Structures are given as C-alpha cells and as structure tokens.
Amino acid sequence: MTILSLLKGKSIFFIGLGIIVLTYMYFTLELTKNKLEVKEKEYKSLEDSALIAIDELNKSLLLQMEVSIEENINKNLKIELIKQNEKVKQESIKRGEIEQDENSDFIVVNF
Fold first, then answer.
1. What is the pLDDT of residues 38-59, one digit of tens each?
2. What is the reported pLDDT for 1?
C-alpha cells in the first residue's frame, strides 16, 4: 500500500464522518426550530389569554365603580327621604296632627 492509498482511505473516513456530523447538526437544528415554534405558539396563546383576562378585569372594575356610584346615589336618596320624612313629621307634630306617646311611636290624630 502506498501513502496515497492510505490518505484516500482516511479522507473518505473523514468525509463520511463530516457528513454524519453535519447531518446530525442539521436535524438537531431543525428539532430546535420546531420546539421554538411550538413554544412561541404557546406563549402567543398565553399572551392572548392574559390580554382577555386583563380586558375582563377592566370591565369588572368599571362595573364595580358603576355599582358603587349607584349605591352612593341610593344612599343619598335614602338620607334625603329620611330628612324629608322627619321634616314632615315635625311639621305635623307642630300642627297637632300627630301625637307622640311614651314609646316614641307616633299616632295620627287628624287626616
């Protein structure tokens, strides 16, 4: 065997080894790309879900504010009604239409 034939055998071996390594690296790269695409889709889905949740939370907060405003309005109306009722009661007592007994109950005398 000559040196040239030995070099041919080794070069074929190294070329084959290089092809195997490059093929392995290519398939590993493709697998990594596929995993990355799947993760990106998962993150996109999670991001969409988070945006929907934030939107629903904002709607809930707005509704809670509206309810609070309505409750305050109702509370103020009740206070005004109680004041007006007390004023009418006091005027009726002054005119003698209502008498107050010892239990603080009011009795209508005249209609």
1. 999 999 999 999 999 999 999 9
2. 52
Q: What percent of the chain has pLDDT over 90?
A: 59
Tokens 């290089």 found at: 18
Tokens for 111, please give them: 């209609």
- DSSP 8-state secondary structure symbol assigned to residue 105: -
Q: How many CB atoms lie within 10 A of CB 97?
A: 14
pLDDT at res. 5: 67
Q: Where are the beta strands (DSSP E) in the chain?
A: 98-100, 106-108
Q: Which two tokens stand for residue 85?
A: 């009722």
Q: What are the domain boundaries of the chain?
A: 10-98
- Indicate the residue type of 3: I
> Which residues touch 98 (CB under 8 Å, ≥6 apart)?
89, 92, 106, 107, 108, 109
Give the pTM: 0.51
